[in-house]
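User: Let's play a game. I give you a shape written as tokens, and you guess the letters that built it. Ready? Here's round one.
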């Protein structure tokens, strides 16, 4: 990937000066989030319609599970970083508290959408690699 992309519902407080907001051409998606990048063409290529649809589903699942639309996705140096809200302390075991099955199910649904999104990103990346390889031949 040639460039860096940051996706968030609001403008992140810290962005490099060369990052500009990109119009992705999808009104439904733009109502949910903002895309910032230092390479518009690469952002349009990486964040294609299929990825946009999968990400919209993920954002809706996060909002349904947490009641908030807080998240951050960053593609930087060919690595994917995701920040997803949770009302749980993931660093401390709570062995003596009651199991909340509703909360567990919400966490499972968000996790399932995250995995699905990552799988789609990987699939799209493999397709791009194949196309580039065929072009060189």
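Assistant: Ready! My guess for every position:
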């Amino acid at each position: 990937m040639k460039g860096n992309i940051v996706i968030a519902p609001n403008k992140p407080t810290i962005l490099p000066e060369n990052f500009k907001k990109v119009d992705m051409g999808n009104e439904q998606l733009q109502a949910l989030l903002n895309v910032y990048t230092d390479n518009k063409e690469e952002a349009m290529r990486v964040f294609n319609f299929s990825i946009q649809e999968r990400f919209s589903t993920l954002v809706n699942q996060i909002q349904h599970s947490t009641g908030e639309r807080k998240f951050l996705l960053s593609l930087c140096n060919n690595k994917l970083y995701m920040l997803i809200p949770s009302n749980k302390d993931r660093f401390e075991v709570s062995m003596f508290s009651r199991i909340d099955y509703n909360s567990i199910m919400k966490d499972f649904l968000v996790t399932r959408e995250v995995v699905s999104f990552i799988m789609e990103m990987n699939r799209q990346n493999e397709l791009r690699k194949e196309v580039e390889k065929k072009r060189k031949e």
